[in-house]
Design a protein that fits this description.
This protein has 339 residues and is α+β, with helices and mostly antiparallel strands. Helices cover 37% and strands 20% of the residues. Bound molecules: phenylalanine.
């Protein structure tokens, strides 16, 4: 009679390292023509008083073989059935690699332009205290200038906490924590409590710039902005400055770039003026330098700030701000870049 003990040790010591060995094992022991099936067939020849014991032992063998086979399947991933099902020589499926968001593209472009003339990139928190968003920037408490930027307040306690309304707050942090010369730009998201329309949104993105050193003049500011405009919009771009007001700069100006769409001849984008407004700027107010621990008798500097949406709108002729955050793939797929 078959030696069941031998079969058990054969099952135990059987080596299964790959799908083929697993399949051989299955055929040999548990397949429909396998050893175990055969043993059940032998049951009828076993004397009646031994039937019960023999049956139990064959059941145990069956369990042993099945457990071993199932465990081996987990280790051997390319099981035969899979090899049959897949043609491994077929080329792979195309991965769609997507595209960068237009605001990210323009943000990177702006950063690259300023990096070339020695500006570092600094970032800061989007939730700010009153000091960094307003007070250090020469907005006196209760001053109407604070209404220039409608603010989302989070906590109106002793120290007001709000979503930053501009990234000038980052520049305050940089000035507090370093000594001039300082040359940095701060890109980031900012928030204002405005009704959402084609021309306004409750959040947008800015890049603000700051340059502080001994003897920095308004001429340096103007030349830096002209360089920027030419790099961004092409060699033919011109700029003009119009007097303006910001609490943190004195004097202050709004900067226009010559309309790149009609070459300054006049079109509906530049409203037939030949100029497009792109940013605000000015010489850092001495009060701001002092608030941030910088001696205003020794140092001077300039600052500027622009909205990335605005620049993107001009570069790509996107005329509705809401498109940037609607996540419509038909819009987003139109942008490609290598930065
Ligand atoms: N912080 C200003 C704003 O958000 C922009 C600005 C920055 C203006 C620096 C002048 C100088 O409106």
């Amino acid at each position: 009679m078959t030696n069941l003990q031998e079969i058990a040790s054969e099952i135990e010591s059987y080596v299964i390292n790959d799908a083929k060995q697993a399949e051989d094992f299955r055929i040999k022991f548990i397949g429909s023509k396998g050893l175990i099936k055969e043993l059940y067939g032998e049951l009828k020849n076993v004397p009646a008083d031994q039937k019960r014991e023999f049956g139990q032992q064959v059941n145990q063998l069956k369990n042993l073989a099945e457990e071993k086979y199932n465990a081996s399947k987990e280790n051997v991933s390319d099981s035969k059935s899979q090899i049959d099902r897949f043609d491994l020589t077929r080329p792979g499926f195309d991965e769609s690699i997507g595209s960068r968001h237009p605001l990210s593209i323009v943000r990177s472009e702006i950063i690259e332009i300023f990096k070339k003339i020695g500006y570092s990139v600094s970032e800061g928190p989007e939730i700010e205290d009153d000091w960094h968003n307003f007070s250090a920037l020469n907005f006196p408490p209760e001053h109407p200038a604070r209404d220039m930027q409608d603010t989302f307040f989070i906590d109106k306690g002793e120290q007001e906490i709000a979503l930053r309304t501009h990234t000038s707050s980052v520049q305050v942090r940089v000035m507090e924590n370093s000594t001039p010369p300082i040359r940095t730009i701060s890109p980031g998201r900012v928030y204002r409590n405005e009704a959402i329309s084609a021309r306004a949104h409750c959040f947008f993105h800015q890049v603000e710039g700051l340059y502080i050193d001994k003897g920095v003049s308004f001429a340096d500011l103007k030349q830096t902005l002209l360089y920027f405009a030419k790099e961004l919009f092409g060699e033919k771009a011109q700029i003009r400055l119009r007097p303006s007001y910001f609490p943190f700069t004195e004097p202050s100006a709004e900067v226009d770039v010559s309309c790149t769409i009609c070459n300054s001849k006049g079109c509906n984008v530049c409203k037939y003026s030949g100029w497009l407004e792109i940013l605000g700027c000015g010489m850092v107010d001495p009060n701001v330098l002092e608030s941030c621990g910088i001696d205003s008798n020794e140092y001077s500097g300039f600052a500027f700030g622009m909205g990335i949406e605005r620049i993107t709108q001009l570069k790509y002729k996107v005329n509705d701000l809401r498109m940037y955050s609607e996540n419509d793939l038909r819009f987003l797929r139109q942008f490609t870049s290598n930065i």
